[in-house]
Amino acid sequence: MLDLRWIRENPEALDRALGRRGMTPLAASILERDRAWREVQTRAEQLQAERNRLSKEIGAAKAKGLDAAGLLRKVAESKDEEARLEAEAARLRAAIDEALAPLPNVPTAEVPDGLDETANKLVRQHGTPPHFGFPVKDHAALGEALGMMDFARAGKLSGARFVVLSRQLARLERALASFMLDLHTREFGYTEIAPPLLVRDETAYGTGQLPKFADDLFRTTTGLWLIPTAEVPLTNLVADTMLEEGELPLRFTAGTPCFRSEAGAAGKDTRGMIRQHQFSKVELVSIAHPDRSFEEHERMTACAEEVLKRLDLPYRVMLLCAGDMGAAAQKTYDIEVWLPGQNAYREISSCSNCGDYQARRMKARFRPKDGKGTRFVHTLNGSALAVGRTLIAILENFQGANGTIAVPAALRPYMGGLETIGGDV
User: What is the rounded distance in angstroms from the CA atom of residue 317 to the CA atom of residue 336?
Assistant: First the structure.
């Protein structure tokens, strides 16, 4: 959530930021509500001060034996009016919060202008896409030919956008998650968490999924939400918390199933595993000092890249433009892996610095070492990596002419020494 005081002082900056995201100006509307709220609040405070004055006059009158009935009547009337004004102030403040809740974060200055992926900026590229001396197959054709990727059976069980993996591909998915978690915990200092997969409204609100993206989530009959990413419970571990500066940064990781309705994905990636309702992902979350969140962002992105480097998968890093970023982010790097079956780079990780946007919603603060007041933490999140898309990349980049799949060296210890999937092995 954006700082209301900042909006008061920088209305033009807000409207510029909204314009960069393709939205219409809203500062005037928010400030009009803000003025109305402050006027009512000021009047309620004035009535309270007046009642305090009257109370002193009543005491003085009684001490002198004078009739205080008129003063008492004024106090009663003042109480009633103050209660009415306080209720009105609460209503107006709730309306302001409702208006602020769906507003996106303000992009940083280095974020490129633009409204879609065509304006994203290439930052760096690693590895060379492989060349094959045979017709390349996509992951769906490879997996189905191996008899280990079954979309038809998943459709009978659950409908579209699900898959059943079996045997070596099921083990490969498990191996990938274990490899990623071991890398992030043993070498990069992240603390592994096994979080709940169901969260309350306030938890989804804290990271910005609610109210803006309710249609993209699955909700149970009890009112809990299935997590779309482990970012939601991991970031909220510090909700309503006062941290000490010395505790920062906190770094969490989790490998979990994720659930998304893909409400806006009709007709997109209908074949294969690219876009599913249920998928596995290893997530990274950092709770950082606001003065060091930008360097933490670079560090997190490098941690995600290292997974691809060790798997020997070609990729590139893109700086997203203002209109292509998620609402909570102020700066985002997308890591895109090369998929030979599509002859294209596709997103496999998104690493974002959210500044204090989520912290304000969660009321997550820290106490500076100098003891002067409190500050909001900065929150960051990134996929490291989306497990299903990593599996796809391995199938397509390591495919053989006979339909077998070479297992990357880094994964062989997690696959019982297996070097090839399919064939006579």
Answer: 6
Is 389 a known active-site residue?
A: yes
* C-beta neighbour count of 7 within 10 angstroms: 20
Token pair of 223, please?
């009112």
C-alpha closest to that of 379 among 243, 210, 215, 222 = 243
Pick the catalytic residue: 20, 260, 299, 361? Answer: 260
| H/E element, 382 | strand 378-386
Phi and psi (nearest 5°) for 65? 75, 20
Q: How far apart are CA 54 and CA 243, in angstroms?
A: 44
User: Would you state the structure tokens that stand for residue 261, as one six-digit string?
Assistant: 């309705």
User: Residues 6 or more apart from 109 whose CB is under 8 A from it?
Assistant: none
Q: Tell me the domains of the chain and their CATH numbers.
A: 4-100 (1.10.287.40), 117-421 (3.30.930.10)
Specify whether 260 is catalytic.
Answer: yes
Look up 350 and say whether it is catalytic.
yes
Respond yes or no on whether the N-terminal peptide bond of residue 395 is cis (omega within 30° of 0): no
* CB-based contact 330:206 (threshold 8 Å): no
CA distances (Å), origin 378, targets 61, 168, 288, 357: 56, 41, 5, 8
Of these residues, 347, 360, 367, 375, which one is catalytic? 347
Residues of the chain where predicted confidence (pLDDT) is lower than 70:
51, 54, 57, 61-62, 64, 66-68, 71-72, 75, 263-267, 269, 424-425
**Active-site annotation holds for 245:** no
Q: List, in sequence order, every residue forming a beta bridge with 122; answer none if it has no partner.
A: 318
The H-or-E segment that residue 278 falls in is: strand 278-288
- The model's pTM is 0.91
pLDDT in tens, 43-75: 888 888 776 776 776 777 667 676 667 766 776
- Respond yes or no: is residue 158 known to be catalytic: no
- CA dist 409 and 170 (Å) reads 18
* Of 275, 292, 310, 360, catalytic: 275
What is the spatial distance between Cα 323 and Cα 319, in angstroms, rounded to a whole number?
A: 12
